[in-house]
Amino acid sequence: MNENILTRRAAVKLGIGGIAAMGAGRFVGAQTAGTEPVSKHPFLTPADDFEDVSRGNPKPHTLKGEALVKARLTPETWRLEITADTTTNTVVTQKAQIERQVALDYSHLLELGKRHRVMFLKAMQCLNIATPLGQGLWEGVPLREVLRLCGTMSNVRRAYFWGFHNDDPEQLFQSSLSYSQVMETPPGELPVFVAYKLNGQPLSLERGGPVRMVVPWAYGFKSIKWLQHIMLTNDYKANDTYAEKNNDPESQLKTAAYLDDVTPKIAAGNPVYVSGLAISGWSGLQQVEYWLRPAADKTGELAQDDPAWISAQWTRCELGAPPTNWSAALPAGVNSRDILGFDRRSGAPLTWPLRYSMVSWSVVLRDLKPGAYEVRARAVDMNGFAQPEPRPVQKTGKNGIQVRRFEVV
To answer: What is the tens place of the pLDDT at every residue in 78-97?
Structure first.
């Protein structure tokens, strides 16, 4: 049950937290009441366990044999073509120009990786879906290093990019970034990059391989799968497929909390374990809070203007701690010192939670009297905005406050 509601910063009331620090990872079912809470979220989502929201008919990752070769979706046949847009119109009067066009194959991309490889942790989330898709350690080459293969450029304001979608213009899925976003990464920020590995393994077809785009601060629609084309243009307008579908193509990943399922019936006297995941988005994550109240009706729905939101008692939860053994949490052979967002000397994360990653949260509810209950959870970002503020509009990313119902019997 998801609700897009308008909270008020004045209603933020902090309380004492819960227990049970746990690692971040996949969105899965709840702990059974009556046992001590344990980590149910692996730190990294196995590649096969990511939720799939692929587009296409047939979906490109289902192609086999000769069809796969023809689509250039094998490491041996893949290539990335980089060209300049020669379009001019009344607004764009000067053509984008590059010194040379590029056709980059897989082996040359891996060679670039030997000199310019980057790795970082990122949670994937879809703009209009109410559950995270998964979290992985992504590896590849910054897009700026790939574009430097084109030599001197002029009149370039934006990069358009798209992947294989059955050679059908109606199925084309594309996105774009400004030249500055690609080439000028601010200190401490993560670069846009061309990814060829996930969790230490070659990127699978289902995850967008052999090669996909990864845009750290954005929702999944920017991280185009099955990447094969980049066109550098002097057109200042975004060309994203999502922009044509009444979505905000420049929306950054929102900070948001998500609820695991709660055991529907719990014997009186037993503790109730409430847990979930939170994504640390563009504005960071300060804390997660829960609100418990007797169930008011059978639906769990609560209107945006219901007075209950104003008087709600929000209580702070416990955030999961970083793994104590990074060598065990990461793929074999990966040192945390080599991951962006980690200290190069100590191997410890520079911030926690890591930006654009997921972290678990939990709380234990005790001594509840028999009856029906509702529990809600929300994230509070580093600016003090409580979910779904400051952007409660779904077209900029779905982050309604979720509710779970249970009964103490």
So the answer is: 999 999 998 888 889 999 99
